[in-house]
From TrEMBL:
One Pfam family, short name: ABC_trans_aux
Domain ABC-type transport auxiliary lipoprotein component residues, every copy: 26-183
PROSITE patterns on file: PROKAR_LIPOPROTEIN (PS51257)
Keyword annotations from UniProtKB, A to Z: Lipoprotein
InterPro entries assigned to the protein according to its UniProt record, in alphabetical order: ABC_trans_aux
Domain of life according to the entry: Bacteria
Name of the molecule in the record: Lipoprotein
Keyword Secreted set for record: no
Amino acid sequence: MRLILASAACLALLGACSNGEKTARYLIDPPSSGARVPDRLGTAELKDVSLPQYASGDEVSWQTEDGAVRSNTKQLWADTPQRAFTQTLARSISDLSGATVIAEPWPLAEPPKRRLEVRVEKALAQADGNYRLSGRYFVSNEGAGGANHARSFDISVPLTNDGPAAIARAQSQAIAQLARQIATLSGPGRAIATSSAPVPRIDDIFSQPLPPLEGS
């Protein structure tokens, strides 16, 4: 009898632990980008965004007053943070400017004119009540005579209240601001002119037609 009761108790405990309704998942969903800007990117491939370790996990993280970064196993992102950040940023830049920005791998037959890389140094709901998104982005031109850009960004969005829902909203707003900055190629940094044509890629070389045989 005791064995039956113990088994029933274990099953009840496991059922409570596996209750999906007790786990909350939050989306990255930037607001409407507002006024459109001119297309300065054309076609661009966005590499997977580089995130800090604490921001790349499944759990929503925040900073407490003691400076520690904490999280809760019941408060998760609805998608892999790197994938969600990358895909959302690409779509936001495209919607804002009309450029064709697509996350890697590039799916179209015609290669992109530019490559875009974003390296995030901080993506955190800070103890001071602000969500901060900072780092650098790089735009490389694939043709000779084009401009390459290396610029910084440091975006701060006030948190409306405590909790993961407010963090998700603030992060979404920060990504929208970053999309506008990249679309306009703005921010501290520099532009470097490309002086020579890029080295052909292996797949480009073998995609060219072979020369005719001698005497044919």
